[in-house]
Amino acid sequence: MSAHHDAERYGYDVLQEVLALGVFEGVPFVRLDRVVEVGDTYLAARNTGPHLLTATRICNGYVLNAEGKYPFDTWECHPIELQL
Fold first, then answer.
1. pLDDT in tens, 13-68
2. Which of 5, 41, 43, 51 has the fewest other C-beta atoms within 10 Å?
3. DSSP output for 17-54
4. With contact defined as beta carbons under 8 Å apart, do 84 and 71 qualify?
């Protein structure tokens, strides 16, 4: 297994833990049971760990975000509602 694959798996594993706990960086959230939509707050991860992002556009299966981070595939994005 390559180092890149190990890092990618690490980010996904951490994301799964965050989703199971319902807390990201100390802020509780509720996971929405649907695909991500424009305007949604969502969690996604690759090799850099989980990111809290805002969907601005969905194009050709990719979700673009307001924060200027990596455009994740739609299946990698988990829409949430923050409980502030």
1. 899 999 999 999 999 999 999 999 999 999 999 877 899 999 999 999 999 999 99
2. 5
3. HHHHHTEETTEEEEE-SS---TT-EEEEEETTEEEEEE
4. no
Q: Please count the other Cβ atoms lying within 10 Å of the Cβ belonging to residue 77.
A: 24
> Token pair 């601005």 is at which residue?
56
Under 8 Å between Cβ of 77 and 56: no
Q: How far apart are CA 60 and CA 11, in angstroms?
A: 23
Place of tokens 């409980």: 83
Residue 39 tokens read as 């305007």
Alpha carbon distance 40, 53 (integer Å)? 8
9 — pLDDT class (breaks 50, 70, 90): low
Amino acid 2: pLDDT: 40
The two three-digit tokens of residue 53, written as one number: 């992002």
